[in-house]
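If you are new to this repository, start here. Below is one unmodified record pulled from the training split, so you can see the exact layout before writing a loader.
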Amino acid sequence: MLITHKCQYALKAVLELSRRYGQGPVKSPVIARKQGVPVRFLEVILNQLKQGRFVEAKRGVSGGYYLARRPEEISVGDIICFVQGPPQVITPSPVDSEESGNGHAEGAFDPIWREIEAGIDTVYRGTTFKDLLDRQVQAMANQASTYII
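And here is the target side for that same chain:
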């Protein structure tokens, strides 16, 4: 499965807003800078996420974007499916049966492609943005504990 740049940026934006959940609105240039996303592209993505009710916006000097739900209520799969549709494994194109001499082999792989799609979907939908933040905190703690001078 390929994740588009647009989808990657949407995931990064939601991750940054998850990191700042409960701290008030965050301006898009701050999100863009922290996550390495072009500001103009991010604005379009944030508006799309707003339409999907993942984020909300507050106008004005103290305005910006914030999550519409808690980080533990939004999965990676929710964002991916909203931005680019459900995960699909990119399967090899069928080989011409005359060239391969065995035109029936492709159907043998169909069940495995479906299993892979189901597995990817399970991981995406089973991983929330809170899970991602918890993993980052754990990884940082592990790095700090193995630091030797």
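Two things worth knowing about this chain: The helical segments are 5-19, 28-35, 39-51, 76-84, 97-100, 105-126, 129-145. The chain has one domain: 5-145.
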